Amino acid sequence: MVKRKWAINSAFMAFYAFAMVLVCWVGWGFRMSFGDKLVFFLGKPAVALDEKFLLSPAFMGYFPTATMVFFQSVFAAITVILIAGSLLGRMNFRAWILFVPLWLTFSYTVAAFSIWGPHGWLAKLGVIDFAGGFVIHLSAGVAGFTAAFWVGPRAEKDRRNSPPNNVILMLAGAGLLWMGWSGFNGGAPFVASTISSLAILNTHVCTATSLLTWLLLDCFHFGKPSVLGAIQGMITGLVCITPAAGLVQCWAAIIMGMISGSVPWYTMMVLHNKVKLLRSVDDPIAIFHTHAIAGGLGGILTGLFALPKLCRLFYMVTDWEKYLGLVYGLQNGRTSAGFKQMGIQLAAMAFVIALNIVVTSIICLFIGLIVPLRLSDEELETGDDAVHGEQAFALWHDREGFASSKHNNKVYDTDELSFVLSK
């Protein structure tokens, strides 16, 4: 989705983040997120590499702890990688090297422990976040937007003209993402069950509805369908259903898809150009709209549509006053419990937003004291070649020579190639 000159840099940011997060995760991150309580919003840092600990059963003995550690490490990694999407095309790579472990340690673990950890304060209140609408997507969207504010925008010419370097490959990646979300949401119950099956079905139903909704709005508003728009609609559907995937009925997933395909479309295509703050903060691939907005919507809609029976199965509780979607509270005469659940969802949303604005700002300001947050003007002008000494597509580099085929030893430059092809 980025310009040709930033293809290596963008991929490298993700590649590095995945490796760094995994090392930090087994070193201290997992225990800070899911371990013993240090304070009400954070676990005690400890190494998760002890053989006895890793081979011990997790979650009612369904699987080893080692499985839990690795599965959750990928959730943590994708959250940081999403933040990179807001910083493409201008962040100093050395600053990114520092940002990843700092943000994972001081932001992600706090949200994960508070919402998912058995001793977390929001978990005890009864917040519903099936697979990370708050912990992952809202966190990444808000943190990315905040970091983008501190790093500053791309070069003006890159903001004006930023075509994707490979639309077909982008579409292939979107397909892999959609397919992979079956594991993202389907794996959240940590067991093959009715809820995991429902989570996968709801994920695909919501995503398909969201994609089609976005596509229709593009056609009506712009007069033509867009591949990029369809991909954005796909992503907002995946994100929106994530906090509710195994806890709502399919009709609710369809409604959530319609909302996730229309509200983020409006904020991105219409509201973005009218709000000064949104215009001034450079978010190259719209992480704020596709993840912060869609993730927040998903968390709120989960509080509306969560089916009590499914929630009790997932959370293994019998308390009828907890995990009750407002729709069912109104239907069953437990209105106060339904409104309480909505209040808890909104409280969790506010906590995650505040946490990421404050912590991300502090981290960026701290890193700025050590290395520049932003690339130099020369690096911004040149891209990958200046930052890494490498280029993603040497075939199309100006004046680059290459062999035409294995049957012909002649080497053409780009001008000669144009002449040959024209013949």
Notes on the structure:
67% of the residues lie in helices and 4% in strands. The chain is mostly helical and 423 residues long. It has two domains: 4-379, Ammonium transporter fold (Orthogonal Bundle), CATH 1.10.3430; 394-423, no CATH class. A hairpin with a 2-residue loop joins strand 5 and strand 6. The two termini are 33 Å apart. Mean pLDDT is 91; it is low at 401-421. It comes from Hibiscus sabdariffa (roselle). This is Ammonium transporter. It is a multi-pass membrane protein. Residues 1-393 form the Ammonium transporter AmtB-like domain.
What tags apply to this protein structure?
423 residues, two-stranded antiparallel sheet, Ammonium transporter fold, single chain, mainly alpha, disordered C terminus
